[in-house]
Specification:
This protein is α+β, with helices and mostly antiparallel strands. The protein has three domains: 44 residues, no CATH class; 232 residues, no CATH class; 60 residues. 33% of the residues lie in helices and 35% in strands. The chain contains seven helices and 13 strands. Strands 5, 6, 7, 8, 9, 10, 11, 12 and 13 form a nine-stranded mixed sheet that branches. A two-stranded antiparallel sheet has the order 1-2. A two-stranded antiparallel sheet has the order 3-4. Strand 3 and strand 4 form a beta hairpin. Helix 5 runs antiparallel to helix 6.
């Protein structure tokens, strides 16, 4: 790498040493104290860490509870599973916080049949929201996002977390993460409006913050009949965020039989009954439409049952983030607008 491609004169935030920053490189390491830093303009990226409050024994104790949590898991897994290893890791997550103000204009469908019509609606929102996504490759651990709400945040301490566990560094694009956060905030407003037709959406985000959060996760690996599986335990709360387990063969077979029977009932018997009892109806086209819908639903049930059987050899659990915006009263919207004005001043 040539000298022209390297920036000099940046000081390490920990020891003050001079750090070289190769052009286009986001992660740099201080040659004196090994402090890792993310390059972002002049201010850098705010970094935090969530302290681990679950020890190794507590994390391993979550495994039997997970193996008995669902009928799709082999019934003897709790008895035969043997823990091979468990270790603590800190994964980095790009995180965005903000107060979202949203105005959605569109139409809501009311009535049915000949009385169906669309009425104009205006929906307003104001809510504090949090978004996060993994800043590194988490394919091995299966945790794309973590529950950060009401979690304690501490200033990033490089020595402490490296002494406590294995630390992964961010490798994904910061600018792409910022763009995805913006898109997610806007999508939540549109989804929460629950309008059938949307003409305009206005979204403003105030008191916006963005940072990098290092989150503790316990990885517990175990052996079942010669095959290796693992679960990922929240190092702060003890909640299972991701896990794999051997499947239950009897459960798979029962799902297949029941799904095929129910799907055939919906796909074939329901259209037959609709057309038989409605043969004298004036709305015969509507009956054919309903029959087609029933046929589609029936085949969907059968396909879902087949997939449950086909891929049920392993059971996979993944924590899902389920956040929605709350419809606030008009006075709260007015207060949000006032905050917006004050912020932009």
């Amino acid at each position: 790498m040539s000298e022209k491609e390297v920036t000099y004169g940046l000081n390490c935030p920990k020891c003050g040493g001079r750090v070289k920053v190769p052009e286009g490189q986001r992660l740099v390491v201080c040659p004196y104290c090994q402090q890792r830093s993310i390059v972002r303009g002049e201010r850098g990226t705010l970094r935090y860490q969530v302290p681990p409050q679950v020890n190794r024994e507590q994390a391993e104790a979550r495994l039997p509870r997970f193996l008995s949590s669902h009928p799709a898991i082999a019934r003897n897994a709790t008895r035969l599973a043997k823990i091979e290893e468990s270790f603590l890791v800190f994964l980095p997550f790009y995180t965005a916080w903000g107060h979202v103000l949203g105005w959605v204009f569109g139409q809501k469908r009311v009535g049915s049949g000949r009385n169906k019509r669309y009425e104009p609606r205006e929906v307003q929102f104001a809510q504090e929201v949090t978004w996060n996504e993994a800043a590194c490759d988490v394919g091995e651990f299966g945790v794309d996002s973590v529950p950060l709400e009401k979690k304690p945040f501490e200033p990033y301490n490089d020595e402490e977390i490296h002494r406590t566990g294995m630390v992964f560094e961010p490798v994904s694009s910061l600018s792409d993460a910022l763009q995805r956060a913006e898109e997610q905030f806007q999508a939540r407003v549109s989804d929460a409006a629950r309008l059938d037709r949307i003409s305009q959406v206005f979204v403003r985000i105030v008191r916006r913050r963005f940072g990098l959060v290092y989150y503790p996760l316990w990885i517990v690996r175990y052996i079942y009949r010669g095959r290796a599986y693992q679960v990922c335990v929240d190092g702060n709360s003890g909640e299972i965020l991701y896990g794999k387990a051997p499947g239950n063969t009897l459960y798979r077979a029962a799902i297949l039989v029941a799904g095929m029977a129910l799907g055939a009932l919906v796909a074939f018997d329901t259209p037959t009954l609709l057309l038989y009892f409605g043969r004298n109806s004036e709305d015969i086209d509507g009956l054919f439409v309903l029959s087609g819908i029933a046929l589609l639903i029936g085949f969907s049930i059968m396909y879902a049952a087949y997939r449950a059987f086909r891929y049920g050899e392993e059971y996979e659990y993944r924590w899902k983030k389920n956040l929605s915006l709350i419809d606030f009263q008009p006075q709260q919207i007015l207060q949000g607008i006032t905050n917006l004005i004050n912020t932009e001043k």
